[in-house]
């Protein structure tokens, strides 16, 4: 005979606590999985559809950093109350992560219906939150999946919802995505690429390519940005826009980045000593306090002067953990490494970041440069950025220059540096060294004539 627990007994309370999130009072991960298990079991003979969803609060960590952890907890409690009040018809909601909630709709039978419910939840969560005498706003992303077959387990169903959530967050804030078979195929391909990329990193098969950064007034090369390139023996050429996010999301961007930086530093040692090497750090590297140590170890091993290295970081990377990022940036600058803010103008609070962090350079996003000749707002934005850089004592580099007219307009506005296909596409180490030798030869001939 199975033991029964009275509601007030110690053992009953302990069992209940094991299934309850202590902050919000909602069910936790274990209770959510248990409810899905029970529902699948109940519908074993007649597997009628039902829906599950994973809801992730967009950008909650910066809010937590801004208002403090206690206020962040208050917001989470308010989120839980709103979600609980929105559940009906046997639906349930649980807290399954620090800023992640899950819901189960037993009586929702279609993709359209669960997407509509999810959009309603996002709308409910978008109303302001009281934080003492201030207010905060949140958005959320949601991934959903539907149970159709008795062959599906709870783990499979939740994994599908997580996959849909991943696609939702990649689409932007406040999005809803319902899992489809196309996503399953994409997930399998991503896993295939991940496995091949891990092998490539281990065997040193990812290579650095270099794109010139020039002085707009003189057209002289001042340095090169490092860009990772990978060609697999089976997959062929794989775009960095595909393999970099996979390495980032699956936790091995660090080894990949270290491999590319080592090869880039080895190649750049043979360049003229007045040329710098620019290298991008990913968002996850800005929360790893070993990042600076790894960079300095590579520079020491390769004999590359830290004063010739520039690290590029994005505002998105800074927002994940501003305190950690600030320490890493300061550690790098203390060693003589310059730091540039990349893709400026596309973030959420760029001006605030410029006040909080010390940058040596600022890179104007290509979206403004591409429309500078025919869009007055872009022209005014670029002028304002350049004026601000002058006032802050920072150098500005314009990205994505493809036309002479764009270069001329930027020079007219006082932009000192530029980068783009007009001046050169990314090339491997050998081709880059040949370019530099030809440039030096041409300079020598011009001086002799």
Which characteristics define this entry?
449 residues; alpha/beta; Alpha-Beta Plaits; TIM Barrel; 16 strands
CATH class wording of the largest domain:
Alpha Beta
Biggest sheet overview: 8 strands, mixed, barrel
Spatial shape: elongated
Low-confidence region ranges? 1-9
Spatial strand order of the main sheet: 8-9-11-12-13-14-15-16
Class per helix and strand makeup: alpha/beta
CATH topology of the largest domain: TIM Barrel
- N-to-C terminal Cα separation, in Å? 103 Å
Mean pLDDT: 90
The total tally of domains equals 2
Count of helical segments? 17
Rg from C-alpha positions?
26 Å
Q: Can you count the beta strands?
A: 16
CATH architecture of the largest domain: Alpha-Beta Barrel
* Helical content (DSSP H or I, runs of 4+): 40-55%
The CATH superfamily of the largest domain bears the name EAL domain
The fraction of residues assigned to DSSP E strands is 15-25%
Structure explained in plain terms:
The chain is an alpha/beta fold and about 450 residues long. The chain contains 17 helices and 16 strands. An eight-stranded mixed barrel has the order 8-9-11-12-13-14-15-16, surrounded by four helices. The chain has a five-stranded mixed β-sheet with strand order 2-3-1-6-7, with helices on both faces. A two-stranded antiparallel sheet has the order 4-5. α10 (about 290-300) links the parallel β11 and β12 (about 310-315). α3 packs across α4 (about 70-85) and α9 (about 255-270) packs parallel to α10 (about 290-300).
């Amino acid at each position: 005979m199975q033991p029964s627990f009275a509601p007030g007994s110690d053992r009953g309370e302990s069992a209940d606590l094991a299934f309850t999130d202590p902050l919000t009072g909602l069910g936790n991960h274990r209770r959510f999985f248990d409810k899905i298990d029970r529902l699948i079991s109940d519908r074993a003979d007649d597997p009628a559809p039902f829906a599950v969803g994973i809801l992730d609060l967009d950008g909650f960590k910066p809010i937590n950093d801004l208002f403090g952890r206690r206020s962040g907890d208050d917001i989470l409690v308010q989120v839980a109350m709103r979600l609980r009040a929105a559940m009906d018809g046997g639906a349930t909601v649980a807290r399954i992560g620090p800023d992640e909630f899950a819901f189960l709709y037993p009586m929702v039978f279609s993709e359209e219906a669960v997407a509509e419910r999810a959009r309603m939840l996002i709308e409910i969560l978008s109303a302001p939150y009281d934080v003492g005498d201030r207010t905060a706003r949140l958005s959320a992303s949601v991934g959903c999946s539907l149970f159709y077959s008795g062959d599906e387990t709870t783990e499979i169903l939740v994994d599908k919802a997580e996959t849909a959530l991943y696609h939702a967050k990649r689409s932007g804030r406040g999005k809803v995505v319902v899992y489809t078979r196309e996503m399953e195929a994409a997930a399998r391909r991503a896993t295939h690429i991940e496995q091949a990329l891990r092998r490539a990193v281990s065997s040193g098969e990812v290579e650095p390519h270099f794109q010139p950064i020039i002085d707009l007034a003189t057209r002289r090369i001042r340095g090169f940005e490092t860009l990772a390139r990978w060609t697999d023996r089976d997959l062929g050429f794989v775009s960095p826009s595909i393999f970099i996010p996979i390495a980032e999301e699956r936790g091995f961007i660090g080894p990949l980045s270290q491999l590319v930086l080592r090869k880039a530093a080895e190649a750049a040692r043979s360049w003229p000593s007045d040329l710098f090497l620019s290298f991008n750090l990913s968002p996850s590297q800005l929360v790893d306090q070993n990042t600076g140590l790894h960079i300095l170890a590579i520079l020491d091993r390769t004999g590359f002067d830290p004063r010739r290295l520039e690290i590029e970081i994005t505002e998105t990377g800074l927002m994940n953990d501003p305190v950690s990022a600030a320490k890493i940036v300061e550690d790098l600058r203390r060693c003589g490494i310059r730091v540039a803010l990349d893709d400026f103008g596309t973030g959420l609070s760029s001006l605030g970041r410029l006040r909080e962090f010390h940058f040596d350079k600022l890179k104007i996003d290509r979206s403004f440069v591409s429309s500078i000749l025919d869009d007055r707002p872009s022209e005014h934005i670029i002028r304002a950025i350049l004026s601000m850089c002058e006032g802050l004592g920072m150098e500005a580099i314009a990205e994505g220059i493809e036309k002479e007219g764009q270069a001329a307009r930027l020079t007219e506005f006082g932009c000192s540096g530029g980068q783009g296909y007009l001046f050169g596409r990314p090339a491997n180490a050998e081709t880059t060294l040949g370019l530099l030798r030809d440039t030096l030869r041409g300079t020598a001939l011009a001086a002799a004539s």
